[in-house]
Amino acid sequence: KREFLVAQYVVCQEGIESVKHVKVDNVDYDKSDSKFNHTIRCHYDGTADAIATANGIPSTNAFTGVAHATAVYKLNREEPNYNNIPGLTFQVLGRKVKSVELNSGVYSLSSTYTYSNNPALCLLDYLTNSDFGRGLSASEVNLESFYNAAQVCDTTVLSGAKAAGKINNGNTTRDVPLYECNITLDPSSTIRDNVERLLETMPYAELTWTTNGQYKISLEYPLNSTQADALVPANLYFDEDNIIRDSFDISF
Predict the structure, then answer these.
(1) Is the dihedral of CA 42, 23, 25, 11 positive or negative?
(2) CA 112/CA 109 separation, integer angstroms
(3) What's residue 94's pLDDT?
(4) What is the pTM for the complete model shown?
(5) Is 7 helix (H, G, I), strand (E, B) or coil?
(6) How many angstroms separate the first and last alpha carbons of the chain?
(7) Percent of the chain that is helix, strand, coil (3-state, to 5)
(8) What pLDDT sits at residue 207?
(9) Is there a contact between 100 and 109 (Cβ–Cβ < 8 Å)?
């Protein structure tokens, strides 16, 4: 009867934690009073979907290097339930990243990947990823600075806050950290632009270049006025002598 439509979708770069929820044409895939009739299967790495292969789609459709989904839609000719090929919106827990470990005064990258939206760890992942990021080695990054920045980002600023939504598994409570990174990056953008987008999730953060050839992140977050005052030297004063120039030259 040709009543089934099989479609495949790319979600994002592989390595995400999971797909938490899907919307079909902006409607919850499992909405009870909708006319939808479908099955959606998600894969988080390059692999052929068994149902797709069984229904004539080549097994070479493995989507190497990306998370993807295969959807099977049952069409209703008497009461149309889809408009053209349905568009899917995926709500995901994003990339799994490596953390920075401290053992006996030595900082190192963990050997395993774990989901985190800690901005410092997300930036570190982007800088060291060779598939879509900067591709730096661990020796080219000041791991101690990223370890310290990650601790600042994880500072709890609100305990037991009310949370809801599919990502939070419905109505619940959670501790809110100081900074979180919940953004998408465009691999066609420049590395500089994407690094700046990641830094924007950590106000006051600066990425600098050390004298020994390493990228270093600086992230200060004063918890009170005394700590804020301590960030500025006590003998630092601004007046017209050091903020206004008498003249300047322009050359091309």
Answers:
(1) negative
(2) 9
(3) 92
(4) 0.82
(5) strand
(6) 73
(7) 20, 30, 50
(8) 95
(9) yes
Are 176 and 163 a contacting pair, CB within 8 Å? no
Count of all residues that appear for the chain in the document: 252
- Tokens coding 48: 């052929």
Sheet holding 16-24, edge to edge: 27-28, 16-24, 88-97, 114-115
* Spatial CA neighbour of 39 closest among 1, 84, 69: 69
Where b means 16+ CB within 10 Å and e means fewer, 108-143 reads ebeeeeeebbbbbbbbbbbbbbeeebbebeeeebbb
In one-letter notation, the amino acid at residue 106 is V
Encoded tokens for 46: 């390059």
For residue 196, the model assigns a pLDDT of 96
Looking at 152-245, which runs of residues are DSSP E strands?
156-163, 172-177, 205-209, 215-219
CA–CA separation, 67 vs 45, rounded Å? Answer: 5
Token pair of 100 as six digits: 């920075």
Q: What is the mean pLDDT of the chain?
A: 91
Q: Which residues contact 93 (CB under 8 A, 6 or more apart)?
A: 16, 17, 18, 20, 115, 167
- Extract the tokens encoding 126: 């982007």
